[in-house]
Design goal:
463 residues, alpha/beta, Aldehyde Dehydrogenase, Chain A, domain 2, 7-stranded mixed sheet, binds nicotinamide-adenine-dinucleotide, oxidoreductase activity, acting on the aldehyde or oxo group of donors, NAD or NADP as acceptor, Ald_DH_CS_GLU, Aldehyde_DH_dom
Length: 463
């Protein structure tokens, strides 16, 4: 672990499993509450100087961090594939994306305004860092989820205590080690532990801001802890993204893009397409194309660079997806590709499945499957499909597909989601905010809007 600028060991460890084999392949450190306290205390001390450090220096340090990540991309990719199961190219995209995000964020202007009334200055609105930020991230994109928090925290003068998911701690722990000589001691602390340490972290009086990415269920606990201690909070939570496909699209081209956005990382992406609503006129044609793409998937360990679909990441996720698929079969779902069963090989593998004929009430439609099983539903009227797409507690992202951009944007504006893409899906950019509405989150990450999440307002008004 990285605590106060040092590599720190733990007395206890826990198993890390390779989901492509189910073998225990590493031991990760189990931080104690004393080590959590030490990390927070180090971050508090470091904050006193980091907040005063010239922002130009902070930017330089961040760029150096990005360069270091790229220089060690190979080993970070290897850790990510082994601990998370993702295909090599997906891990490569995650590592390179992390470096790009760090570098881009380093160049963002810091906000601040002068307010005038009738041409006379009445005040200045400044932004202040919170202090110690507690960052908690999930297992599906461990490294980039962490960087989405570390980068804006560092630029804005906050210091960080970060805890990765216990399922995927290794690439992130290695990142802490790699950045040790670039950052002043205590500015970035990375501790690893099973879930039991998390409540002590969210309740810690030395942490002033919580930034959390993970499930809505856990997000509620984080929100409650933030309320108890009046901490700042940003929550990036679950989703059940709809894709709405109008009748005028090029079916083969749209199918390819939808397949990519539904099955990337075996569907384990917060903003993966999780339900497709397709106009009845092209429903069957789209299903044929999607099923054909599913049939071409190369399933296996992500270490094999030809593999396109890796395993589910955890036993729990594997069981959950199979349960939803079995329920879909019982609900009358027809499997145009795949089947409600595991692939016959070691590891948590499920082949990509395309399922039609489900009622809107099927659990595979209403719940976040977070796996390679995609329900395809038919519609005829826009009003009807907008209402069905919005009939969910979630509001993370969505997409609308049509050659008529005006029509697509008009539908997009009626969807209750933080991001609605047109003719693309799951295309985050460091320049644009990522923000969930409804049960998908509170606050935003990325771009200028993400920086605001790490800053508090201070008004200076002189008589
Ligand atoms: P999770 O909620 O189970 O775990 C996330 C993190 O919370 C882990 O680090 C875990 O150790 C920690 N945690 C566990 N108990 C806690 C507690 N009581 N208090 C504080 N933290 C606690 O989520 P997961 O299964 O790792 O990730 C999958 C979920 O994350 C999906 O729902 C997915 O949609 C969501 N997600 C959202 C986004 C987004 O940007 N909106 C991105 C990626 C994943």
């Amino acid at each position: 672990m990285t605590i106060d600028g040092l590599c720190v060991e733990a007395t206890d460890t826990y198993d890390v499993i390779n989901p492509a084999t189910t073998d225990v392949f590493a031991q990760a450190p189990q931080a104690t509450e004393d080590q959590l306290d030490a990390a927070v205390a180090a971050a508090q001390r470091a904050f006193l100087t980091w907040r005063e450090t010239d922002v130009a220096v902070r930017r330089e340090v961040m760029v150096a961090c990005a360069v270091r990540m790229r220089a060690h991309a190979d080993e970070l990719i290897d850790w990510l594939v082994r601990e998370q199961g993702k295909p090599f190219v997906v891990a490569q995209g995650e590592v390179m994306g992390s470096a790009r995000w760090m570098e881009f964020t380093a160049g963002l202007p810091l906000p601040g305004e002068v307010v005038e009334v009738d041409g006379v200055k009445v005040g200045e609105v400044r932004r202040k860092p919170y202090g110690v930020v507690g960052a908690i991230v999930p297992w599906n994109y461990p490294l980039i989820s962490a960087v989405w928090k570390i980068a804006p925290a560092l630029l804005t003068g906050n210091t960080v205590v970060l805890k990765p998911s216990p399922f995927t701690p290794l690439a992130t722990l290695r990142l802490g080690e790699l950045l040790l000589d670039l950052l002043p001691p205590g500015v970035l602390n990375i501790i690893s532990a099973t879930d039991d340490l998390a409540p002590a972290m969210t309740a810690h009086s030395g942490i002033r801001k919580l930034t959390f990415t993970g499930s809505t269920a856990t997000g509620k606990k984080v929100f409650a802890a933030a309320a108890e201690h009046i901490k700042g909070v940003t929550l990036e939570l679950g989703g059940n993204d709809p894709a709405i496909v109008l009748a005028d699209v090029d079916v083969a081209d749209t199918a390819q893009k939808i397949f990519a956005a539904a099955f990337a990382n075996s569907g384990q992406v917060c903003s993966a397409i999780k339900r497709v609503y397709v106009h009845a006129d092209i429903h069957d044609a789209l299903v044929v194309e999607l099923a054909s793409l599913a049939g071409k998937a190369v399933i296996g360990s992500g270490l094999d660079e030809t593999v396109t679909v890796g395993p589910l990441s955890t036993q729990a996720q594997f069981d959950k997806v199979l349960d939803l698929m079995n329920d879909a079969a019982e609900q009358g779902g027809v499997f145009a590709a795949g089947a409600p069963e595991a692939v016959d090989r070691p590891g948590y593998f499920i082949a990509p499945a395309i399922i039609t004929g489900l009622p809107d009430t099927a659990r595979l439609v209403t719940e976040e499957q977070f796996g390679p099983a995609l329900p395809i539903l038919s519609f005829t009227h826009i009003d009807e499909v907008v209402s069905r797409a919005n009939d969910t507690p979630y509001g993370l992202s969505a997409s609308v597909w049509s050659i008529d951009i005006e029509a697509a944007v008009s539908v997009a504006s009626r969807i209750d989601a933080g991001t609605v893409w047109v003719n693309q899906h799951m295309k985050p950019r460091p320049q644009l905010p990522t923000a969930g509405v409804k049960a998908s989150g509170v606050g935003a990450e990325n771009g200028a809007w993400g920086l605001e999440s790490f800053l508090q307002i201070q008004t200076i008004a002189v008589a």
